[in-house]
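Fold this complex.
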Amino acid sequence: MRKIECDVAVIGAGPAGLAAAARARERGAGRVLLMDRDRELGGILNQCIHNGFGLQLLSREMSGPEYAEYFINEAKKADVETMLNTMVLSIGADRRIHAINQYEGLMEIQPKAIVLAMGARERNRGGVVIPGARPAGVFTAGAAQRYINMEGYMPGRRVVVLGSGDIGLIMARRMTWEGAKVEAVLEILPFPSGLTRNIVQCLEDQGIPLYLGHTVIKIHGNERVEGVTVAKVGSDFRPIAGTEWDIQCDTLLLSVGLIPENELTLDAGGQLDPVTNGPVVDDEMCTSIPGVFACGNVVHIHDLVDNVTREAWAAGEGAARFVAGQQPSGHVIPTAAGEGIRYVVPQKVHAENLATRDVRLSMRVKAPAEWVRVEAVLGGEVVFSKAERVVRPAEMVSLTIPKGRVAPELIERVVSAVDGGADDDAAKLVVRIAKRESSSEGGIRA
Amino acid sequence: MSTETRELTCIVCPVGCRLRAVLEDGQVVSVEGNTCKRGAQYALDELCAPKRTVTTTVRVVGGFLPLVPVRTAAPVPKERIAEVLEAARQVCLEAPVESGQIVIADVAGTGVDLIASRSMPVAASGQH
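Structure:
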């Protein structure tokens, strides 16, 4: 069995793995090994041929493959070593990795640090429990995207999309442009799950109706999908009797959410956050296992790849610091989702970093809200906040507490509360949404 | 004189204002519902000359995939999208393809090039 030693092993070569690997090298890590089970680098970006990538980070509008190619080149420039067609089987004690491919057979890889960047899986029919027979023609939106954009197959001609996630919206337009008729997009929630620009350009542009508060209650057909029964749902998300109607179609696309891919994280003994379904991480993206870092959709589901790259840079930098023995020592302060917030990443922050670096917090709100203030509250004191005209669950909110913003005495006070075993807000960094007067402060003016 | 009211959602920023524009003889005379100036400009552009970047695929032989993604190098008038898609369907490239390579110059007479949006190397032997 071949044995490989390296400084950093990165698992998954999508946008997260590519940026983490390059950044780890740039920050001084020696041999960095980037592994992926696919035959090429870039991950899911290769099938996302629509544009809109890179607007925030690179100030230009790229397609998914173009964004991937940009970061593939960055990784090459940084002398990242890549290993394709390679499946990581396990992560054991002391961060020892077992992986397999067709050239080497079984390999044992011993890195000093690991970055988990395995991305996410699509929730499928079993995940949303739709009754009916099991005919052909039910696809997850991402699978259909790969068929159409990379493999050259057309999954169907008359389509219903369940779920208003971004991939479903993008595929509604893509299938229309390839000659299919998209009959409807159904969303069980009272608000869309995808970005507004996708609702406008993918549905409104094509004249595709979006039914909010609706779901599919039955799939018809034996060999092939022949139609679906849809119904309105109540506030309990259960179908309302008497509101159902049938739509004829040969294809049902599911865009009903992504689940972080954490088999390896669990194998390694990493602790998961029950809300994000991803590993609990600190502000350097280190999981509960020292030296094992994580970034991208494996940690929490992102709507913009630009934010994945930002997070991956933090993980790559954290891994390089760990290899160099420079990881922050001492106290960590837990973060918590307060009023109006569903979750916050990272789940803990190093007290040392709060005093010496910018600390970025990413979060999702529970429901749409207008004229709000997003606040970071340390030990009961608001230490930083920003005004937002509108926040939506579909769009991740971030807050960066600038270096030097938090008084050292306050950090000390919170650290001693943590040390004293306190579990209330005195020992936490809480993020929350506060209402503000629409006319009095901040926001956008005409 | 014909007066018409059109509703649209602004996509300039994540706020997504619901805009209501009044057109007289096809000319925008007022925009309501926007909370910033950019919203009014968006409504003007959208109602007078809406444009979109078109992204699709073209066939390729000799690569390790049968398709190469392409996009218009700049947004094209919305009403020309179908022609751009049709022109792309007529093309078959040969690997290798370089990202950014012009696939169709001045596609469908729009004055905009259709360009490859990824590279496609020649398939190594043993790959399809």
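The radius of gyration of chain B is 20 Å.
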